[in-house]
Amino acid sequence: MEKLARYLSRTAGVAAALTLAGATVAGARAGAAPHPGTVGGTAYHPVNLTASGSLAGKSGGTHYLYVDEGNSGGTADNIEAFKIVGTSASWLQTFPSGANQTIAFFGSNTLALRPSKKGKSECLVLTDAGNGMIRSYSVATSGSSQGQITGQVSAVADPNGYTPEQVTVSSNGTWAFLVDASAYVSTWTIAGNCGLTLASSSKGATDFPNYQQAEEVGSTQLVANDDGNNKIDTYSVNPSTGALTYTQSTSSPAIQPDGLFVSGTKVFTGALTNPTIAQAGTLQGGTVQFVQG
User: Fold this and answer.
1) Distances in Å between the alpha carbon of 268 and those of 18, 35, 163, 232, 238?
2) Tell me: the pLDDT tens digits for 98-126?
3) Most CB within 10 Å of its CB: which of 170, 175, 266, 291?
4) What is the pTM of this model?
5) How many beta carbons lie within 10 A of that of residue 32, not counting itself?
6) How far is CA 222 from the centre of its chain?
7) Residue 246, CB half-sphere, CA atoms under 13 Å: how many?
8) Bond preceding residue 239 cis, omega within 30 of 0
9) Is 6 in contact with 19 (CB distance < 8 Å)?
10) Alpha carbon of 238 to those of 51, 128, 170, 205: distances in Å?
């Protein structure tokens, strides 16, 4: 549910994503992409939504949502924070991200959350496509500012010199995996203060993959869609360092797969071919076994 809400925020605006989660936001209006939505009368182009806690289990307490506005063309980008209590939500904060966003591919999640679990601090990690950087921010987890972004911690240039597309945080909260529309997927260590340090970069099967998204499968594997070569690549994840090792590629029945969603070992992708299609498969032994039909 949470990942589906993230996807819908990309295509239909924050209000639609919040409605899916059973919440409503005062002053929020959805805008079908690329038309802007509004929050409190302020227009923006919703790019990504990520949640603190499970959207499906809101009754247990207060949760927070974070939206990357996705402003580009030299316009300052912001991250919007919302507070959810029960089935209602309210605007909490507008934080200048310092990013200059561009949207190169459909489905890429520019914003990821490292939750405050197992003694780790809460952090947001953002890809800054326009400036070719990856950024991180600290989030307050107590006191009067709980749920609010308290400051930027890191702003680091993409070491591969490409366009950062998607970031996802590992299930153990230790690493962030960055896809940058190149042949590489990089691993970043997330420090206790939310600082980012490049740990390693891993290369796919060919010199010219065009990675757009990547998602962790369990805690030991990661899949990435290679739009340029019509492949789904699989990497193993080193449990000690987070380093990625390319293992296998699976040919995608869909031409130019440009969306990726993982649920357990199920892998779902889509493609803006003519006609637009979606496909599903199961990750088995390092390859994706796609369902025919």
Assistant:
1) 22, 26, 24, 11, 24
2) 888 765 555 566 889 998 877 788 999 99
3) 175
4) 0.79
5) 10
6) 14
7) 21
8) no
9) no
10) 27, 26, 11, 18
Contact 282, 289 (CB under 8 A): yes
Question: pLDDT of 8-50, one tens digit each?
Answer: 333 333 332 332 233 444 333 332 233 333 343 444 444 445 5
Cβ atoms of 5 and 17 within 8 Å: the answer is: yes
Q: Which two tokens stand for residue 43?
A: 């227009």
Whether the CB-CB separation of 91 and 41 falls below 8 Å is answered with no
Opening angle at CA 279, ends 274 and 285, nearest 5: 140
Give the Cα separation of 114 and 123 in Å (integer). Answer: 5
Run of H or E including 184: strand 184-190
Q: Residue 198: which of 209, 185, 189 has the closest Cα?
A: 189
Other Cβ atoms closer than 10 A to 2? 17
Find the mean pLDDT for residues 212-233: 89
Cα(140)–Cα(145) distance, integer angstroms:
6
Task: Please give the span between the terminal C-alpha atoms of the chain, in angstroms, as a whole number.
Answer: 25
Q: Does the pLDDT value for residue 60 go beyond 70?
A: no
Residue of 269 and 5 predicted with greater confidence: 269
Q: Which amino acid is at 55?
A: L
